[in-house]
Design goal:
There is one protein chain. The protein is of the alpha+beta class. It has 25 helices and 22 strands. Strand 18 and strand 19 form a beta hairpin. The longest helix is centred in the middle third of the chain and has 37 residues.
Length: about 800
């Protein structure tokens, strides 16, 4: 039977009236409306912001065709336990020839090209030199132009580059006419032939891509592992089959080239796992955390709605007595709920916009595709869905509970609520217990991260990072000799040392925690031992005589370098404690002779003259590896970093160091300038980011749980006014009344704490990968956070309890 138009119009009119009435009810109770809307805004806004990050980073496909067939390839050090090392060009060429599971392989070499513009200082641009077919193997098609042609991968075959999408937007304003234009890189005109799509995260974002060709030295270089390799599987091969194939290839190379490949394996990692694997667990934990926060927010608003509906029970009873059916009452309550949810959703969207901006601004450098995080159609749809879900969660129970009032009780009470009673309190108590348990779970998770972060900070760096500035540059020219580079380096060093506020200046090729360390792992052979017992790759560094003093690395044995350790003097080296322990154990390393090449120099015999303390190179998480130091005066390396110890804040002197560099040489490019303290902090950015977000969500959940306890006890006191008055009239002391009411809150909090501890014990195990030197069930964290929750519950209950104890028995 079709409803007449007038009937549909009447229903629509009633809905409009209910919505208007709902607005009016909220306007008449601004405190209640404000608390509810703010609670919803925080829950919906935080959830939407984190979902936006998870959606753009994790849920959207990578911009590579058939990405499931694309894998990254890494060398492994079987003896040292390193499963993800850079690839040497000589090994890569052997892989290409011997592997059978791949349709293609390609290599990317980190490089730097200097952009020169008329009237401006030169700027170093991070560059990837890529082998033939790299973009085809990766599965990337330019949004403008083309990729490199085969003839452009031959020396002298063409000076062409491809731009990253971000660099194209920033430098050229997204102008399509950039294709075919020329830019000056390393004082050579290079033609722009393509622009890559946005979001290319492998190997790492860089502004410039250029064709690569192999030098004669690279063709046989199997020890310089600093390149990134990618492969595309054949359609009939799996990752497991490719891994087995590369294990076979690595084994054969170990037999053919034992001096460099005896302990070198190959690790095959799908590109999705390589790009997203490190951040996926943390984002999923954060998404789960805001989901719990949303649950607490909904529970709090549901509790407020129950109290609000209980206060209206008399009104609803009168409406029912005058003939309003249950569906009409449900619609009336649901209209107010819908208005509240809509206002909370709009406010939540505003919170999420701010949250996304903060998320993008604070995101650690290793978070892929962070620049793409935004509020778009998918995120808006999610926000609407969350708002509807919240309305359902906090509006369903009040609508069903109070749409069928007990008319006799209501009318007998003359409009005073007498039926909310025990069933209402039981349900609100269940909501509060839920809030406490979930808030405790979040706080324990944040506590574990915080304890882990502090443990990480306790690790000894092995050097002093305070008051250290650094300037990295490449001073080598094609026609320069090592002696000329030494003169050039000395000129810069003396110029920096003359600046006000500078204490001392040292030189190194591999400053710890520098983003682009020139640090190669090279084979070390100990004189008098067989290759089988002595060949291992070790980190090599080149330093000036005062380097250890400037960065505060203690000398343990022997001597440091001196000015006498120059180019024509006997070759000497200093080793760290880890190398001494691993290679010499109980033997005295001083005076021992080793053979190793340093920074491209041919292998030469060098005598160990000193042992220094271990230094962490790139992370507080990793143990210091074996490391060997050679005198800078015996190397004359072109890629160096000046280490400047300052009297005051090192960041303040960086502009002067830059200006002094260009005063000495206006054409000199600065690759990196920064403070050592900030570089160490950058490596902790990801953990700090996770900690700050989870702690923020946890504190909000903690506050909402406290508000929930306060609201429940306040409502309970209002329902028990007569009982409390009788108790006081019969002689109950003030302390007894307070103890009675606080005891109710304590019982709820203890139940919530027990459930929260059980939940944390089960769920924090998924955080194991985010923790350092802390177990997911750390007793200290569990006990401290649980005790804090009980104390907060007591404080939240004390205020309404004290108010109740001061009641006038006559009233």
């Amino acid at each position: 039977m079709v409803m007449p138009a007038t009937g549909r119009f009447g229903q629509l009119q009633e809905i409009v009236q209910d919505v208007v009435y709902g607005f009016r009810q909220l306007r008449n109770r601004p405190v209640y409306a404000g608390v509810a809307i703010l609670t919803l805004a925080v829950g919906i806004g935080a959830t939407t912001a984190v979902f936006s990050a998870a959606d753009h980073v994790l849920l959207r496909p990578l911009p590579y065709s058939d990405a499931e067939r694309v894998v990254t390839l890494w060398e492994t050090d079987v003896a040292g336990g390193d499963l993800k090392k850079g690839v040497s060009p000589g090994n890569f060429l052997e892989w290409q020839e011997r592997a059978t599971a791949f349709g293609g392989m390609a290599l990317a070499q980190p490089y730097g090209l200097d952009l020169t513009t008329q009237g401006e200082p030169p700027v170093s641009l991070g560059t990837w030199l890529v082998t033939e077919g790299f973009f085809e193997v990766l599965g990337v098609t330019p949004v403008l132009g083309r990729t490199f042609r085969p003839e452009e991968h031959i020396r002298g075959g063409g000076q062409v580059v491809i731009l990253s999408h971000d660099f194209w937007q920033q430098r050229f304003g997204g102008d399509p006419a950039v294709i075919g234009t020329s830019i000056s890189l390393d004082l050579t005109p290079r033609t722009v032939v393509g622009v890559l799509p946005r979001g290319i995260e492998y190997p790492r974002p860089n502004p410039i891509w250029a064709p690569m060709w192999f030098s004669p030295h690279q063709l046989t270089d199997r020890s310089s592992g600093y390149m990134d390799a990618v492969g595309r599987l054949r359609p009939d091969r799996t990752v497991e089959e490719a891994q087995a194939d590369m294990a076979r290839v690595a084994s054969s190379l170990g037999e053919d080239f034992p001096a460099t490949n005896r302990n070198i394996g190959v690790n095959v990692i799908p590109i999705e796992k390589h790009v997203l694997g490190p951040v996926r667990p943390a984002l999923l934990v954060l998404l789960g955390a805001v989901g719990f926060l949303l649950l607490i927010a909904s529970a709090n608003v549901a509790s407020l709605q129950l109290a609000r509906s209980a206060a209206r029970e008399g009104e609803l009873g009168v409406r029912a007595a005058l003939g309003a059916g249950r569906s009409r009452l449900v619609r009336l309550i649901a209209a107010e709920t819908a208005v509240l949810a809509a206002l909370g959703g709009v406010a939540g969207l505003a919170v999420s916009i701010v949250g996304v901006k903060l998320f993008s601004a604070l995101a650690p450098p290793e978070l892929p595709r962070a620049a793409t995080i935004a509020i778009d159609g998918r995120v808006l749809a999610f926000s609407v869905a969350v708002t509807v879900l919240c309305a359902f969660l906090f509006g369903l129970v009040p609508a069903l509970r109070f749409s069928r009032p007990d008319l006799n009780s209501v009318l007998r009470a003359s409009g005073r609520s007498t039926t909310a009673g025990k069933s209402h309190l039981r349900f609100r108590s269940a909501l509060v217990i839920t809030e406490i348990s979930v808030a405790l779970l979040l706080m324990i998770s944040a506590g574990l991260l915080g304890r882990s972060f502090l443990r990480l900070l306790d690790n000894d760096l092995g050097f002093v990072s305070e008051n250290i500035a650094s300037v990295q540059m490449f001073i080598q020219r094609n026609d320069q000799s090592a002696e000329e580079r030494l003169v050039k380096a000395r000129e810069f060093k003396e110029s920096f040392a003359s600046l006000p506020g500078v204490d001392e200046v040292a030189v190194t090729t591999a400053l710890p925690f520098l983003p682009s360390r020139i640090d190669r792992e090279l084979p070390l052979i100990i004189e008098g031992r067989s290759e089988e017992t002595s060949v291992r790759r070790v980190h090599t560094n080149v330093v000036s005589p005062n380097y250890f003093e400037v960065v505060g690395v203690p000398l343990l044995r022997g001597r440091s370098f001196t000015e006498l350790d120059e180019m024509n003097a006997p070759r000497v080296v200093i080793i760290n404690r880890a190398l001494a322990r691993q290679f010499f154990r109980d033997d005295d390393p001083l005076g021992q002779r080793v053979m190793i090449g340093v920074l491209g120099q041919p292998a030469a015999t060098r005598m160990i003259v000193g042992v220094v303390e271990n230094v962490r190179l790139t992370s507080l998480l990793e143990d210091p590896p074996p490391e060997l130091y050679a005198p800078y005066a015996q190397s004359g390396a072109g890629s160096i970093t000046f280490v400047v110890r300052t009297q005051g804040p090192p960041a303040a002197i960086l502009p002067s160091l830059n200006n002094e560099t260009w005063r000495v040489d206006p054409t000199q490019v600065i690759y990196h300038a920064g403070t050592l303290e900030s570089m160490v902090a950058d490596t902790l950015a990801g953990r700090k980011f996770n900690l700050v977000l989870l702690l923020s969500f946890s504190l909000i959940a903690f506050a909402l749980a406290a508000i929930g306890i306060y609201g429940l006890i306040s409502f309970s006191v209002s329902q028990r006014t007569t009982e409390i008055g009788v108790r006081i009239a019969l002689g109950a002391r003030r302390e007894q009344v307070i103890r009675l009411i606080v005891g109710q809150a304590m019982r709820l909090s203890l139940v919530g704490v027990i459930l929260g501890i059980v939940g944390a014990g089960l769920l924090t195990r998924f955080m194991q990968h985010m923790l350092y030197d802390v177990t997911p069930t750390d007793p200290a964290v569990f006990l401290q956070i649980s005790a804090a929750m009980v104390v907060v519950a007591m404080l939240a209950a004390y205020l309404p309890a004290r108010r109740a104890a001061s009641s006038d028995p006559v009233t």
